[in-house]
């Protein structure tokens, strides 16, 4: 099976797109006509550029409003087709993609359309070329792949074949069983696109919200299983129209596309047991059982304030690194590493971002296998020097240039605290009841969100929750969760198009994407928060109006609500259980901490997010007025 990507998926000029496609290790490229029209060169120059990078032009597209035109438009459209064949000859491309007619003056009729395609096939065959017919989901007369196939079948020409586009098929909820009956040699091209489930017209949905397989909600697996039953081993390409992609990094989006195809095809292999020719199988997805540590990059000035906050939260200094200015802080199963080195990765990260989370370490079932999968998915491993006798913990680059480390039991990497650190005797009475890392919230640019959603879900056994919108005083924040399902890994991804939301202000202050807040879990939030307050940690003040509304909205005892108000604790519940949460005020770098108690509750208190954001916004305004 040959894989490719359409230039329409990417931002930039045609040379920039071709460079990115080659760097992402694609072998084929679909040339979108507008990219060629705006190219400062002849089609033969584009061909030379494409072939010099080891690529092949597999499709020229789209050819619009062809079938069913009355005269004199019919004669004109065939003349236009001849000109496109001239261009394709210069490009070194043999397949023209024709999408179903949307012109208001077009005429319907399967036989009429089939006759047009037979005639077009004759012209194409004279040039050694082919044409593929795609049913647009908003086509005027043909919007169902089954009708498109019937037209191709009746055209009965070896140079005329079918184009299947997963978006157009799945968006309309079309039955997939007919795909299984199509001869594989009559399918000239399969274009892949996912999308979120949205209630809107097909044209707008397609032109703005398509995404790579695995990033949306369409049943891509069902489509691929039906296609697989045909024995199809031809051209598989990505065709994505997405506003985020067109605003994002050309190379990053191209890599996302390759990653999405690799994962999709590997999952098909697992379901069917059939290898995909030309594509290696991937190591299995990693099973994550927990967060081993969270590493902060700091300098001497900010280190004391950070460690004072950690002490206030009940963390105890549990070790010092044997060769570096690095300390371990521990409470329960939660480990925080404070890195104050004056050279190396963390130091560089601190120079760029200030006090910040520069790395996360996850406990996985097989660390080396996890890195091997990440590498196969085009995420290169990270290496830095380690002292003799110290552990070399495998890692890859993650959000905002941070690191993602992997430790496991089978290789002994979980012994890092004994091997790399000198232990410090803990004070058992200094804790506040925090037991674990509950979840980690990452803020990112709006155009990055699909990238990191794909990164996490392609690397780990994890599910993505439905996208939620959260009201911030400065605009709308989109939030989506990656959840391993066992409590070991919960990542909340946040992004906003408004520059006035707290998420966007963090990006501006942080100079990039990164971890904005960390939630620690406790079994008794009231006792924990009261101890934290006694330790001098300032909590985020919640308005009295919230608690007055809570009295009439839920059936909690009044004394419980009064205690919640005294401790600035927020509340939510679902059919399964209850959720209590409280927040610290923001520390240097724009970060803050959350304390949560879960009682058989799986969510994240989304109903309380606007309350928290408004409270944080008020504090930010006060700080601005005071010049802090």
Chain-wise SSE layout:
Layout lengths: L1 E5 L7 H10 L4 E5 H5 L5 H10 L3 E8 L9 H19 L3 E5 L10 H17 L3 E5 L10 H11 L4 E6 H6 L15 E6 L9 H8 L10 H9 L6 E4 L4 H5 L2 H23 L15 E10 L2 H13 L3 E6 L4 E6 L2 E6 L5 H9 L2 E9 L2 H10 L4 E2 L12 E3 L5 E5 L8 H5 E3 L10 E10 L5 H11 L3 E2 L3 E5 L2 E9 L6 E6 L6 H9 L3 E9 L2 H10 L9 H10 L4 H9 L3 E4 L4 E6 L8 E8 L9 H18 L2
Parallel strand pairs: 1-2, 1-8, 2-3, 3-4, 4-5, 5-6, 6-7, 7-8, 9-12, 13-16, 18-22, 23-26
Antiparallel strand pairs: 9-13, 10-11, 10-17, 11-12, 14-15, 15-16, 18-23, 19-21, 20-21, 21-22, 24-25, 25-26
Helix pairs in contact: 1-11, 3-4, 5-6, 9-11, 11-16, 19-20
Would you kindly provide a brief summary of this structure?
With 628 residues, the protein is an alpha/beta fold. 36% of the residues lie in helices and 24% in strands.
CATH topology of the largest domain: TIM Barrel
Termini separation:
59 Å
SS field, number of helical segments: 21
What's the CATH C level of the largest domain? Alpha Beta
Mean pLDDT: 94
Sketch the major β-sheet.
Answer: 9 strands, mixed
Q: Uncertain runs with pLDDT below 50, 5 residues or more?
A: none
Query: What proportion of the residues form beta strands (DSSP E)?
Result: 15-25%
Q: How many domains?
A: 3
Structural class label:
alpha/beta
The number of strands is 26
């Amino acid at each position: 099976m040959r894989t490719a990507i359409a230039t329409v998926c990417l931002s930039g000029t045609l040379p920039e797109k071709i460079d990115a496609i080659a760097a992402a290790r694609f072998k084929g490229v679909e040339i979108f006509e507008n990219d060629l029209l705006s190219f400062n060169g002849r089609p033969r120059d584009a061909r030379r550029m494409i072939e010099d990078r080891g690529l092949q032009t597999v499709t020229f597209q789209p050819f619009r409003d062809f079938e069913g035109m009355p005269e004199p438009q019919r004669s004109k459209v065939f003349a236009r087709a001849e000109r496109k064949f001239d261009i394709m000859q210069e490009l070194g491309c043999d397949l023209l993609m024709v999408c179903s007619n949307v012109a208001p003056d077009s005429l319907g009729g399967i036989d009429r359309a089939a006759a047009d395609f037979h005639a077009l096939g004759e012209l194409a065959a004279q040039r050694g070329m082919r044409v593929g017919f795609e049913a647009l989901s908003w086509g005027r007369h043909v919007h169902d792949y089954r009708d498109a196939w019937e037209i191709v079948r009746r055209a009965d020409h070896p140079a005329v074949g079918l184009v299947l586009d997963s978006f157009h098929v799945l968006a309309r909820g079309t039955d997939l069983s007919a795909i299984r009956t199509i001869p594989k040699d009559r399918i000239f091209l399969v274009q892949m696109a996912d999308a979120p489930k949205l209630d809107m017209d097909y044209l707008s949905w397609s032109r703005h919200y398509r995404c790579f397989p695995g990033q949306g909600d369409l049943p891509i697996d069902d489509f691929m299983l039906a296609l697989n039953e045909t024995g199809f081993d031809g051209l598989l390409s990505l065709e994505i129209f997405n506003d985020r992609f067109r605003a994002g990094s050309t190379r990053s989006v191209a890599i996302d596309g390759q990653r999405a195809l690799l994962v999709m095809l590997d999952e098909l292999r697992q379901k069917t047991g059939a290898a995909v020719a030309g594509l290696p199988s991937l190591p299995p997805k990693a099973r994550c059982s927990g967060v081993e540590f969270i590493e902060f990059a700091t300098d001497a000035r900010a280190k004391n304030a950070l460690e004072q906050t950690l002490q206030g939260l009940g963390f105890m200094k549990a070790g010092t690194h044997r060769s570096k200015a690095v300390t371990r802080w521990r409470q329960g199963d939660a480990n925080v590493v404070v890195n104050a080195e004056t050279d190396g990765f963390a130091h560089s990260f601190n120079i760029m971002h200030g006090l910040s989370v520069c790395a996360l370490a996850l406990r996985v079932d097989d660390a080396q296998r996890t890195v091997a999968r990440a590498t196969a998915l085009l995420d290169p491993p990270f290496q830095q020097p380690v002292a003799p006798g110290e552990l070399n913990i495998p890692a890859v680059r993650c959000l905002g240039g941070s690191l993602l480390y992997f430790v496991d039991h089978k290789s002994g990497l979980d012994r890092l605290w004994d091997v790399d650190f000198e232990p410090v005797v803990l004070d058992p009475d200094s804790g506040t009841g925090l037991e674990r890392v509950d979840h980690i919230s990452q803020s990112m640019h709006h155009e990055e969100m699909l990238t990191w959603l794909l990164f996490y879900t392609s690397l780990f056994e994890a599910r993505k929750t439905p996208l939620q919108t959260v009201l911030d005083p400065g605009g709308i924040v989109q939030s989506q969760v990656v959840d391993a399902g066992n409590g070991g890994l919960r990542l909340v991804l946040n992004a906003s198009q408004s520059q006035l939301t707290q998420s966007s202000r963090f990006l501006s202050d942080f100079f990039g994407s990164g971890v904005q807040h960390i939630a620690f879990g406790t079994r008794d939030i009231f006792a924990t928060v009261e101890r934290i307050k006694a330790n001098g940690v300032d909590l985020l003040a919640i308005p009295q109006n919230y608690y007055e509304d809570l009295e009439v909205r839920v059936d909690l005892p009044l004394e419980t609500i009064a205690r919640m108000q005294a401790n600035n604790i927020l509340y939510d519940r679902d059919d399964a259980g209850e959720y209590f949460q409280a927040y610290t005020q923001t520390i240097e770098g724009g970060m803050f901490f959350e304390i949560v108690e879960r009682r058989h509750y799986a969510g994240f208190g989304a109903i309380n997010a606007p309350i928290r954001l408004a409270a944080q916004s008020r504090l930010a305004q006060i700080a601005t007025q005071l010049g802090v």
